[in-house]
Amino acid sequence: MRVAMIGSGYVGLVSGACFADFGHEVCCVDKDPSKIAALNRGEIPIFEPGLAELVAKNVREGRLSFTTELAPAVRAAEAVFIAVGTPSRRGDGHADLSYVYQAARDIAAAIEGYTVVVTKSTVPVGTGDEVERIIREARPDAEVAVVSNPEFLREGAAIADFKRPDRIVIGTEDERAKAVMSDLYRPLYLNQAPVLAMSRRTAELTKYAANAFLATKITFINEIADLCEQVGANVQDVARGIGLDNRIGAKFLHAGPGYGGSCFPKDTLALIKTAQDHGAPMRIVETVAAVNSQRKRAMGRKVIAACGGSVRGKTVAVLGLTFKPNTDDMRDAPSIDVIAALQDAGARIRAFDPEGMAAARAVLTDVDYARDPYDCARGADALVLVTEWDLFRALDLPRLKAALNAPVVVDLRNVYRPDDMKRHGFTYLSIGRA
Ligand code: UDX
């Protein structure tokens, strides 16, 4: 099948490359000429394991191409995906849909023959209705169906998530569109991925409900972790003790500095707004968002406490800046708030991240960057581990201790074992472990 992917950001690029790998003919479109030029040179604008190889292979085999010209790509396609950004709108937290609607207008102008327009971007309930209205108003003659097909991939594991999804959600009541979507995803049937057909509005809401539920799960275990610290319990044992109950499930119960990234913070806010607008406020999700944003700064206070109550004039080494490992994404990363809290209290920051330092330079101020974890620790009065990159999981502890000015480690991801750290002579604080 021929596919046009409008928006060559994270979701567009991963989905486009994976569809091409399944044998479809995919043209990825983006308005940014420098991005398209880079992609045509074989440079991938984001860090995602395996993506560069997947793109190169499918370009070489002639199934994947990149262009700034939307019209010819759309004209040739049987399915057109909208995978543009839906950032939080400044001021009110609603999702900013201007890129989605612009894409709808551009698609309408170009459409030829029966075309299925698919929103893959995370969009509030009712956006598909508006996309359809825009297209039909501009082109009453067009044979078109608008489908919601939300994406559930995680950064850092995006290709595997796309190719082996837990489920595929298809929101449309148009039988012909259902058949087109079914052909597109047929290569996945081998993996027996369940395909859930539902109404378009239901599909749109399903994506928000999934992200809000996962954000709630994380926030729940984070609060249990705080309680563990007060009562002398161990949050990892609690997480295992509840997670083995199938009704709860073991995943997303890892306590930490609070969730970040491009999805959970933005999507919980957008869901809260939609719910308020419709007179059905989601008080649980409102609380989750508030608890999570307070938590990130509270992690700074935890480091200050570990340093004996003050970090004024001290140097704090920060390991890990991105919101999670295996990405260079700094969006809503907990490190931003932790570092701000420490700087406000008078600390100097030296930081290291395996892939995120270029992106970090754009959002953090007054930070020195180190060459590696030991260079980062050199002369520091405390070290805080914020992101659990594999590289930080087996640090040479005697070498780390020798590099530090004071052997204080605050491990916000519970990577190390308290008894090991004690044996090596560290003052060690972690999350939810007394
Ligand atoms: C998320 C959803 O998982 C994905 O389905 C959706 O399509 C996009 O949003 P992503 O933001 O890439 O994906 O990362 P994810 O692995 O879900 O982690 C999000 C945040 O939660 C990170 O900051 C992570 O560190 C944190 N987290 C995750 C925890 O603190 N504890 C956990 O147990 C899991």
UniProtKB/TrEMBL annotation:
Domain (UDP-glucose/GDP-mannose dehydrogenase C-terminal) ranges: 317-418
InterPro entries (UniProt xref): 6-PGluconate_DH-like_C_sf (IPR008927), NAD(P)-bd_dom_sf (IPR036291), UDP-Glc/GDP-Man (IPR017476), UDP-Glc/GDP-Man_DH_C (IPR014027), UDP-Glc/GDP-Man_DH_C_sf (IPR036220), UDP-Glc/GDP-Man_DH_dimer (IPR014026), UDP-Glc/GDP-Man_DH_N (IPR001732), UDPglc_DH_bac (IPR028357)
Keyword Transcription regulation found: no
Catalytic activity: UDP-alpha-D-glucose + 2 NAD(+) + H2O = UDP-alpha-D-glucuronate + 2 NADH + 3 H(+)
GO molecular function: NAD binding; UDP-glucose 6-dehydrogenase activity
EC number: 1.1.1.22
GO biological process, one term: UDP-glucuronate biosynthetic process
UniProt: NAD(+) binding residues: D30, K35, T86, T122, E155, K266, R331
Ranges in a coiled coil: none
Domain of life: Bacteria
PROSITE patterns: PROKAR_LIPOPROTEIN
Amino acids binding substrate: F152, L153, R154, E155, K207, F252, L253, H254, A255, G256, G260, K324
Active site: C263
Pathway: Nucleotide-sugar biosynthesis; UDP-alpha-D-glucuronate biosynthesis; UDP-alpha-D-glucuronate from UDP-alpha-D-glucose: step 1/1
Entry annotated with the keyword RNA-binding: no
Family that this chain belongs to: Belongs to the UDP-glucose/GDP-mannose dehydrogenase family.
Record-given protein name: UDP-glucose 6-dehydrogenase
Gene source species: Microvirga flocculans
